[in-house]
Amino acid sequence: MPVPFTADDTSRLRDTLGQVVADGASPGGVIAYGTTGASPGFLSVGKVALECGDTEPDQDTVYDIASLTKVVATWPLIGQALEAGLLDLDAPIRDFLPPMNSEAPSGEATVRQLIAHTSGLRASTRLDHYRGADLPLHELLCREPLEDAPGQHRYINRGYILLGLALAHIHGRPLDQLGATLWGTLGMDATVYGPVARTPKVAPTEQRIPGAPRIWGAPHDDNAGLLGGIAGHAGAFSTPSDLAVYAQGLLAAHTDGDERGLGDWLHASLVPQAPIEPGLDRGLSWILAAGGRVAYHHGFTGTSLYLAPETGRYLVICTNAVYGGNARTKIAPLRALALKTISAT
Which part of the chain is the Beta-lactamase-related domain (predicted)? Predict the structure, then answer.
């Protein structure tokens, strides 16, 4: 049976979110929480942003979810492609990309290594360095030498860029269309690849140039922006409500199975692939904590998604904490509490 959140749980989460906002870490934010088989609850604090006037964030506010794109788009699409026989976890990524006419040391990284961040590819990703190149992007990325021997954990965005390009190639359809089809079947009607229209219901992110407008409705991630907002590592926009729907769907599938195979894929993804630090392992895309009982992922803009399959619990954090700069340190207390709360049995 799912283990519901207590009134003390939600009170602490609301108070900590309120403190994060009061400290200027984010203009506002929303926490979605719940269990399988029950309607989600939502906690909201603050305003969407100064640009949005008095609009308060709620379950329908649209956030740039940044690296949550990895687990909301790329990860489930890989799971579906594996079930359909279109991908092989232990085959090199070059097998699922258009043919290349040169040596491709990075193209020898396997799908498993890329999705588990153990590929050894170069960690620094600057797609602007490839401007004006004659070769297609997948070949430019694959031609790069490895930076480390495969096997060690190192968080690398370019691996997910390659995975996104591979998904588009094997399906013969753009990644945003693949995402739209997936999200439609899951009932995530507000989740899209950007850019999206600037409205008070869309949370702005960072002001990169003093005096210039904030990034608002366009991806905060530069590399995703250079790819037109559509990439395997970032670029998706979603709402607390949609992310709650997604979390519920994954947890239900994990327990009961589903026709899309995402339950089996989540089971497989909870197997540790490499240690990150004491107490944390990398599964297939997800970070695993609490002895593998919790899977979670963060987005640089100030978003997080936590799943606890054994207890049927989930937590979603949506903020635009990058509004004032690097969000990671500013919302660390809220993320730490979320992990502690969802890990409880």
Answer: 14-339
